[in-house]
């Protein structure tokens, strides 16, 4: 496997408008946008701008979306890498990817580095799966720590990382000057689910009988990603029927399919846990 380092152009199209709910997380993330846009406000008073921010929350709650929105709102380049891509890599490759990523981000500063699934590289040392050697993961993690320590606090690069397993992270990652800020993203409540449905229905052709509050009531425990999935699935169901608009029954059918998918997933996952 080769890790992809992707860079979006200056006009990352995601904005805070695309994120529903998550009010408190948004307020905290807006501060990061301000660090990138107006660093002098902080540096002229002698403040050190934080380098690393950890986005913590269950799968599908919008961590990646939030990171992209920071880049979009601040109008800075976005470099991203996923921790899980390192797992199957040859020794030495992970570390050099990390080095390369930081180098490119520094050249383009102000910029954002986003490391998704950081727990895949950053899980605490010693807790390894018996079938896997941990050399590669460890050298990648060490390189990441070296890079984080190696650049000054006011170089204009902010590293955002995402995890749904903060409990297994190596404590070295969380020390002051590294990922010392945490922003929590929770699963949406009913009102927030309504808001997420509205965001994902913006571009859909809706029938008159679509009742968002009922859909939100019928989707307890669903993440933003699940809701996005329902909306798209409903559109596909309606399209197959060759109708003019997507009706409530299409959303209900889509919801049942997503529930079915979630149940299958949890059956596969739970024996391991
Ligand atoms: P994972 O932990 O599985 O990587 P994540 O927390 O990074 O998930 P995202 O990839 O950001 O989640 O979310 C997936 C998709 O779900 C988004 O692209 C978006 O369409 C939708 N979504 C998630 N949360 C929200 C939200 N709060 N508002 C609107 N859409 C959302």
UniProtKB/TrEMBL annotation:
<comment type="similarity">
    <text>Belongs to the AAA ATPase family.</text>
</comment>
<feature type="domain" description="AAA+ ATPase">
    <location>
        <begin position="49"/>
        <end position="189"/>
    </location>
</feature>
<feature type="binding site">
    <location>
        <begin position="57"/>
        <end position="64"/>
    </location>
    <ligand>
        <name>ATP</name>
    </ligand>
</feature>
<protein>
    <recommendedName>
        <fullName>ATP-dependent zinc metalloprotease FtsH</fullName>
    </recommendedName>
</protein>
<comment type="function">
    <text>Acts as a processive, ATP-dependent zinc metallopeptidase for both cytoplasmic and membrane proteins. Plays a role in the quality control of integral membrane proteins.</text>
</comment>
<comment type="similarity">
    <text>In the C-terminal section; belongs to the peptidase M41 family.</text>
</comment>
<comment type="subunit">
    <text>Homohexamer.</text>
</comment>
């Amino acid at each position: 496997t080769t890790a992809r380092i992707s860079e979006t152009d200056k006009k990352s199209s995601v904005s805070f408008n695309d994120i529903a709910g998550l009010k408190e997380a948004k307020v905290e993330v807006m501060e990061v946008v301000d660090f990138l846009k107006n660093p002098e406000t902080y540096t002229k008073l002698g403040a050190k701008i934080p380098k690393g921010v950890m986005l913590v929350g269950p799968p599908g709650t919008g961590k990646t979306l939030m990171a992209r929105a920071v880049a979009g709102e601040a109008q800075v380049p976005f470099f991203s890498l996923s921790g899980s891509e390192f797992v199957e890599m040859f020794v030495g490759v992970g570390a050099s990817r990390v080095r390369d990523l930081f180098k490119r981000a520094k050249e383009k500063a102000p910029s954002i580095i986003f490391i998704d699934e950081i727990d895949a590289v950053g899980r605490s040392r010693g807790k390894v799966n018996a079938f896997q050697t941990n050399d590669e993961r460890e050298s990648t993690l060490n390189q990441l720590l070296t890079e984080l320590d190696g650049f000054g606090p006011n170089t204009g690069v902010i590293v955002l990382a995402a995890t749904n397993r903060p409990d297994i992270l190596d404590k070295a990652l969380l020390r002051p000057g590294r990922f010392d800020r945490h922003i929590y993203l929770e699963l949406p409540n009913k009102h927030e689910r309504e808001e997420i449905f509205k965001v994902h229905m913006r571009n859909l052709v809706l029938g008159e009988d679509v009742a968002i509050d009922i859909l939100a009531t019928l989707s307890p425990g669903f993440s933003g990603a699940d809701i996005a999935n329902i909306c798209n699935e409903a559109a596909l169901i309606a399209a197959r029927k060759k109708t003019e608009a997507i009706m409530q029954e299409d959303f209900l059918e889509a919801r049942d399919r997503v529930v079915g998918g979630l149940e299958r997933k949890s059956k596969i996952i739970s024996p391991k846990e």
